[in-house]
Amino acid sequence: MGQRGIFLDRDGTLNHLVYYADTDEWESPRTSDTLRLIDGVDVALRRLIDAGWFLFLVSNQPSYAKGKTSLENLQAVHNALDAQLLHSGVHLSAAYYCYHHPRGIVPAYTTNCECRKPGTKSLREAAASFDLELNNCWMIGDQDSDVQCGQNAGCRTILLEYSHSASKRGNSRPDHGVIRLIDAVDWILRQDHK
Ligand SMILES: [Mg+2]
Ligand SMILES: [Zn+2]
């Protein structure tokens, strides 16, 4: 029997979205100084690790393809997140980023790829690398595309109701819905004891 893992969306799941006046939208952090973890995320992830789950980050980051920031800045945002999580004793087994967008302005990153959620390339890669049994895995995120990605890969799914991404929800049917990551973790750990 394979290992089991949790696929975690990043923005609106682990860290807050950031308001940008140029687009008048709440978006992924474009620079590392704007990265803020959501309260309780470190505790929630530690609980999963302590219960034997592998953790994987799966994130769409199209802002470079759209000309809004640099790849260096996006790498710095990831490094800041990784450092903050490690400081809390949370080790991510792997992080999978999609930097593409079908309607970008940077030609090399403007494509219909299979790694952009709800595409499942990253989940299939993780399954192959870490011997995961995808139907024993969960995907947790704050958008319909996260739920659809998890379902496309055969995972169970939890949808978080993060306030600034409400417009990205309403057209998916997750196994469960909660407000915060810590509630999702409680739910998953309870399933273990049924
Ligand atoms: Mg998100
Ligand atoms: Zn991609």
Describe this structure in words.
- The chain is of the alpha/beta class.
- It has a single domain (5-133, 146-192), classed as Rossmann fold (3-Layer(aba) Sandwich).
- Helices cover 30% and strands 18% of the residues.
- It is built from five helices and eight strands.
- The strands form two sheets. It has a six-stranded parallel beta sheet, with helices on both faces. Strands 2-3 form a two-stranded antiparallel sheet.
- Helix 1 (41-50) runs parallel beside helix 5 (181-192).
- The longest helix has 17 residues, at 71-87.
- It starts with a strand and ends with a helix.
- The model has no long low-confidence stretch (mean pLDDT 96).
- It binds magnesium ion and zinc ion.
- Zinc ion binds next to loops.
- Magnesium ion (MG) binds at residues 9, 11-13, 141-143, 165.
